[in-house]
From TrEMBL:
Transmembrane segments: none annotated. One of its GO terms (cellular component) is spindle midzone. InterPro entries: DUF4487 (IPR027902). GO terms for biological process: chromosome segregation; interstrand cross-link repair; mitotic cell cycle. This is FIGNL1 interacting regulator of recombination and mitosis. The gene is FIRRM. One of its GO terms (molecular function) is protein kinase binding.
Length: 853
């Protein structure tokens, strides 16, 4: 009533600053009165009912009066300067927020008596809704001078935006459309006044709220999709709600995309939030093991409408160093369910880098230490490490969308294929200045204790050998050869390098193979450790024949040298290397051995066998390895062996198996006895060999090692199909359990009938058990051969052991409870900060334990 009679330029001084603070206090007092008296509300207590309804009615009228104030300002001014109405927006926003909070909490405030005031609460909500809508129209008319860096208008606008942000958190579950419109206004005003408020905005709060709303709407979308998948009947109402929620997801994602694009330089402290947003979304979406179970149709809808918006977000962040630091942080410690999404993210980054300038590629592909506590690993190292953590996804395996090729339908690929193909594609576009990083990352991964990671690196290296020049391939083969020669004894690193050498050697050009032979001459015994790992099939026919002749000549000579020496255990290591080289010849180029060389090998092998006895083979690891190498050599020449020697071998094997030797020794025994299936045993020694054979198979078939059991079933089947001595086959089946095992294997039955869901749950449990980083093997440890047993260490007693176990059990339970809550919905903003504080305490405890140790 008074406003039309006042000068609009002096409204703030004469009216708003005087009246609105009192109005806000009055409104807060009424809300407080409602909350305190609502407990006494009942249909019988008409006095309290009347009082509460009168208060609510007054609040509705007060909101109406504020709406009139806002409308008056809009009507009388074409452009608005916030300084002239300074008290109005803040007061109105305070009242709006209080109203929405009261409405949101009405069920708990009024308990079971809500129906007595529900009509006024609805009116109150509508009036607040209308008031906010009118205020947003007013704020849209605000003009700010972009040339002025510091004034009250800037601060006031920032306060308005963050007040609206608070309102968003209140109404997010009350009215989706209103919530989205409020966000739209926040983004619009932030961009409109970007140049003057960008330094004052609390960007982290805005990004965090947006990410929380994205996750909440995404989880709601997944829940609806899951309900529709589980329900047989098609409910159109559910599907419409699903589409509406999906549209909301897309809106929030596009808002985040737009905001991040405009304010990227100010998002340093939001990169962790953005990173986790990507990971959490993909952890709940197929093909993640932890994904919600939804139909293929719903999956494609979500992908097409929502997930596609995450790709340009990553493109925006690609050049932002703080984001690179977060993604490649050497101390990044992700839970099991986020390792697979991290791997997918790194592959996405890898796909985008070829189109980026050299500086961006360098940023991602080189290790860096920002400070004493902050270290960044290279993208390639991160990919191999992340891939290594995806044991469950690799073993299931999960399938991803494959690459499209001309004329062929798109097929799903395993995680291994997905990473391998994209890694090889990335290698083709790798900047020449970063080749050293590529070599180092591949070599580091090849030397990994994790077999599947090493295999991935080998596949990528072989692709590089084929894609690159012949000279590059030859150079790499030479480097690997030198590394093998310098390996300090038996270790898994040596095994990995030997497999890589064998594969790379096939890609060498014949002239380079000849150079290799000259550089690492097979005529010299010192090079036999190298030639034992090379397949002679990789050489051209003439060169193969020559090299086989030279290796076999040196090998048999070295065997004779050992036979004529003192034959100490210390010399067995070099003898085993020689035997391994001879076995490589037999396995990869046996046809290139002339009769003379075959005879020479059989002769020295037979002489070496004569020196073995059961006690030595049972007790000494080096002799066990010699034994395991002699058996396949004897098996290769089985048709030419003296029957008496075969009897000696079988008799020793029977006695040895009863002493339970290591698995690799039993596998060598298995290979030899399976080769006897092709041999006709002379009648004169049948009664001594055949009982031993049946005893060997019976012992191996009864073994509890699943790996040995599988190999035994295969070898026994091969033996039974090829032998002329069929009478011993039933003698090998010493028990009913063994018979059933063999029958199940032959009939391909007896498998555990496991549903897809049960299989996924089992793999998740296995992943949780196996998810431990491999211990780093030091150079000194590598020098100690794995064949040499470690001295036993006395068990140490701890007086507080049970108390420690109880405390750790409590911690584990708390972590499981937190993990369960995170799967149900988004985490509160304070959770990450509290977890980081706990992590610091954990690190402090670790350091203290190390000092005690």
């Amino acid at each position: 009533m008074f406003l039309p009679h006042m000068n609009h330029l002096t409204l703030e001084q004469t009216f708003f600053s005087q009246v609105l603070p009192k109005t806000v206090k009055l409104f807060d007092d009424m809300v407080c009165e409602l909350t305190s008296q609502a407990r006494g509300l009942s249909s019988q207590n008409l006095e309290i009912q009347t009082t509460l309804r009168n208060i609510l009615q007054t609040m509705v009228q007060l909101l109406g009066a504020l709406t009139g104030c806002v409308q008056h300002v809009c009507a009388t001014q074409e452009s608005i300067i916030l300084e002239n109405i300074q008290s109005l927006p803040s007061s109105v926003l305070h009242v709006i927020k209080s109203t929405f909070v009261h409405c949101k909490n009405s069920e708990s405030v009024y308990s079971g008596r809500l129906h007595l005031v529900s009509d006024l609460l609805q009116a109150l909500f509508k009036e607040a809704y209308s008031l906010q809508k009118q205020l947003m129209e007013l704020l849209d008319m605000v003009c700010m001078d972009p040339l002025v860096d510091e004034n009250d208008d800037i601060l006031n606008m920032v306060i308005v935006i963050h007040s609206l942000l608070d309102i968003c958190s209140v109404i997010s579950s009350m009215d989706h459309a209103f919530h989205a419109n409020t966000w739209k206004f926040i983004i619009k005003q932030s961009l409109k006044h970007q140049s003057i408020i960008k330094s004052q905005l609390k960007h982290k709060d805005i990004i965090t709220s947006l990410c929380e709303d994205i996750l909440f709407s995404f989880h709601s979308c997944l829940q609806l999709a899951e309900q529709m998948t589980q329900s047989d009947a098609q409910d159109n109402a559910d599907y419409r709600l699903f589409q509406k929620t999906l549209k909301l997801c897309r809106f929030f994602a596009n808002s985040l995309l737009h905001y991040a694009k405009e304010f990227l330089p100010f998002l340093s402290d939001s990169c962790c939030t953005l990173h986790h947003l990507y990971l959490q979304i993909h952890s709940k979406f197929p093909p993640s093991l932890y994904a919600t179970r939804i139909s293929k149709a719903h999956q494609e809808e979500i992908e097409g409408a929502f997930l596609v918006t995450l790709d340009p977000l990553i493109s925006q962040l690609l050049t932002f160093q703080p984001f690179v630091q977060v993604v490649l942080d050497s101390k990044l410690d992700l839970p099991c369910e986020l390792q697979f999404p991290q791997c997918l993210l790194l592959v996405v980054v890898m796909d985008k880098l070829p189109s980026q300038p050299k500086e961006v590629q360098t940023l991602w592909c080189i290790d860096s230490q920002a400070s004493e506590t902050t270290t960044r690993i290279s993208l390639l190292k991160a990919i191999f490490y992340s891939f290594e953590q995806c044991s469950g996804e690799l073993s299931l395996p999960v399938h991803l969308q494959g690459l499209k090729s001309k004329g062929k339908a798109e097929v799903a690929v395993t995680l291994y294929q997905h990473v391998c193909v994209h890694l090889c594609t990335f290698i083709t576009s790798f900047h020449p200045s970063l080749f050293a990083e590529l070599d180092a990352a591949l070599l580091n991964a090849v030397l990994s204790a994790n077999m599947i990671t090493s295999l991935l690196a080998m596949d990528a290296w072989c692709f590089l050998a084929r894609y690159g020049t012949a000279e590059l391939c030859a150079h790499h083969v030479t480097i690997v050869a030198h590394l093998i020669k310098s390996c300090p004894g038996e270790c898994y690193q040596l095994m990995n390098l030997s497999i890589l050498l064998k594969r790379l050697f096939f890609f060498m050009a014949p002239p380079h193979q000849l150079e290799f032979i000259h550089k690492f001459s097979p005529k010299e015994a010192e090079n036999l450790p190298l030639w034992q790992h090379i397949s002679f099939q990789a050489l051209p026919a003439e060169l193969r024949k020559q090299t086989v002749h030279e290796v076999s000549t040196v090998g048999t000579a070295e065997c004779r040298k050992w036979l004529s020496s003192s034959r100490t255990l210390g010399e067995l290591e070099s003898l085993n290397t020689v035997l391994s080289a001879l076995l490589t010849i037999c396995n990869s180029a046996g046809e290139a051995l002339d009769t003379g060389k075959q005879t020479a090998i059989v002769e020295v092998v037979s002489q070496l066998w004569a020196f073995l006895n059961i006690k030595q083979v049972a007790d000494q690891p080096y002799i066990q390895q010699t034994f395991s190498l002699l058996l396949p050599l004897l098996g290769f020449f089985i048709q030419t062996l003296d029957p008496k020697l075969i009897l000696q071998v079988v008799t020793l094997q029977t006695s040895l198996l009863k002493l339970e030797p290591p698995d690799y020794v039993r596998l060598a025994v298995l290979d030899f006895v399976s080769s006897l299936g092709k041999l006709f045993i002379p009648e004169a020694i049948q009664d001594r060999i055949l009982p031993n054979l049946s005893c060997i198979f019976a012992l191996l078939l009864a073994d509890r090692s699943w790996l040995l059991e599988q190999h035994t079933l295969e070898a026994f089947t091969q033996f039974a199909e090829g032998t002329n001595h069929e009478e011993i086959v039933p003698q090998c089946l010493s028990s009913e359990e063994t018979k059933n095992k063999v029958v199940s294997f032959l009939e391909k039955t007896g498998f555990v009938d496991e549903t897809e869901a049960a299989k996924v749950e089992r793999v998740k449990q296995e992943k949780g058990i196996f998810w431990e980083p491999f211990a780093n093997v030091t150079v000194e440890e590598a020098k100690r051969s794995s064949l040499q047993p470690y001295a036993k260490r006395a068990r140490q007693e701890f007086p507080w052991e049970e108390e420690y176990r109880s405390a750790l059990h409590t911690i584990a339970g708390a972590l499981e409870a937190t993990e369960s809550l995170l799967q149900k919905g988004p985490a509160p903003a304070w959770l990450l900060m509290e977890m980081e504080a706990l992590q610091e305490r954990m690190d402090k405890l670790k350091r203290y334990i190390h000092t005690l140790g």
